Amino acid sequence: MIQMTKYTNILVGIDGSEISELALNKAIKVAKENKSKLLIASVINERDILGSIKPASVGFGSVTVNNIEEIKERTENMLNKYLNRAKEAGVEANTLVSYGNPKVELATKIVEENQIDAIFIGATGVNNVISRLSLGSTAEFIIAHALVDVLVVHK
Asked: Which of 122, 129, 138, 142 could pair with 107 in a Cys bridge, judged by C-beta atoms 3.0 to 4.6 Å apart?
């Protein structure tokens, strides 16, 4: 019989996609079964805001403090909805909004700063328009670089 690891601090990465919501649902279930704490996190990609890779969320050259605060507020509102869902399920949970490269933040920085021992992520996210059959680049990076268990949730 395979012994399952008991997780104490679970991280779930949320990007607003349907698949990240499925990852959240799975993380809530596992957190409840393990009596774990759940950290529901979303990383605002600074490069998207500045428009250096693709069309910016705000528009290149027109980023203001108000624009960034608006994006952060929308993200916090989304996470608070998920936080309430976790708490209604009886799971101790918190939210975190950070800025930076989502791959790096989720795979290493947030893990280290919050003593995370498992990461739940969706196989693809909001930016995967090419193929829903392959892993998204964020998921691939996290699998390759995280020093903790990673559970990838598929649709």
From this structure: 142
Is pLDDT above 50 for 64? yes
Residue that is written with structure tokens 């279930």 in the block: 29
Token pair in block for residue 133: 């059959």
CATH no. for residue 27?
A: 3.40.50.620
Q: Are 133 and 43 in contact (CB under 8 A)?
A: no
pLDDT for residue 67: 76
pTM of the model: 0.83
Looking at the predicted structure, is the pLDDT value of residue 56 above 90? Answer: no
- pLDDT, tens digit (0-9, with 9 covering 90-100), for 16-51: 999 999 999 999 999 999 999 999 999 998 766 655
| Number of domains observed in the structure of the chain | 1
- Nearest-5° angle of CA 102, CA 45, CA 16? 75
Taking the C-alpha atoms of residue 153 and residue 138, their distance in angstroms, rounded to an integer, is 13
Considering the domain boundaries, does residue 79 fall inside one?
yes
Residues facing residue 42 across a β-bridge: 97
